[in-house]
């Protein structure tokens, strides 16, 4: 928690470039989202001086890193005001939804799908969509802390539960 207070002090000081980048092109928001440092994320977003869709050298955004780690609180803070590009593609063509599916974070998948604003059919440079990745993975082993999520409502996907067919049988 000590680092959080230091970050908040730097943000409130006003003399720090909050979109500064390291040698990988990553910003403080990118690292906060990946590490699920919710207090820092809230402060950075509320300050208004950060690019929520900042891209690093790999083309990845803070939302992409949060989805890869299954950091649901980070995802919520990033998407709640609607300014973040939910379908941001990195240099491989992968979206945050793709990362959440690949790394088997069912809560992150559910959060992104429930926005109703993610494209489930966009393909990466290998020609694979988030649905393709879901079909290739055994979702019985997904990282769910609260048990299976069965109702993944998505307006463009009537049978959204097809994304996790094995869970319905558990």
The figure for the number of domains is 1
Strand content: under 5%
Oligomer: single chain
Q: How does the helix and strand content classify structurally?
A: mainly alpha
Helix residue percentage: 40-55%
CATH architecture: Alpha Horseshoe
Report the C-alpha radius of gyration, rounded: 16 Å
Which fold does the CATH topology refer to?
A: Serine Threonine Protein Phosphatase 5, Tetratricopeptide repeat
Low-confidence stretches: 140-170
CATH superfamily: Ankyrin repeat-containing domain
Kindly describe this structure:
The chain has a single domain (2-168), classed as Serine Threonine Protein Phosphatase 5, Tetratricopeptide repeat. The chain has nine helices and no strands. The radius of gyration is 16 Å and the shape is elongated. Mean pLDDT is 81; it is low at 140-170. The chain is mainly alpha-helical. Helix 2 packs antiparallel against helix 3, helix 3 (38-47) packs parallel to helix 5 (72-79) and helix 6 packs antiparallel against helix 7. It has helices at residues 2-13, 28-34, 38-47, 62-69, 72-79, 96-102, 106-114, 130-136, 165-168. Pfam families: Ank (PF00023), Ank_2 (PF12796). ANK repeats lie at residues 24-57, 58-91. InterPro entries: Ankyrin_rpt (IPR002110), Ankyrin_rpt-contain_sf (IPR036770).
Fill in the keyword field for this structure.
single chain; repeat; mainly alpha; Ankyrin_rpt-contain_sf; elongated; Serine Threonine Protein Phosphatase 5, Tetratricopeptide repeat; Pfs domain-containing protein; ANK repeat; 170 residues
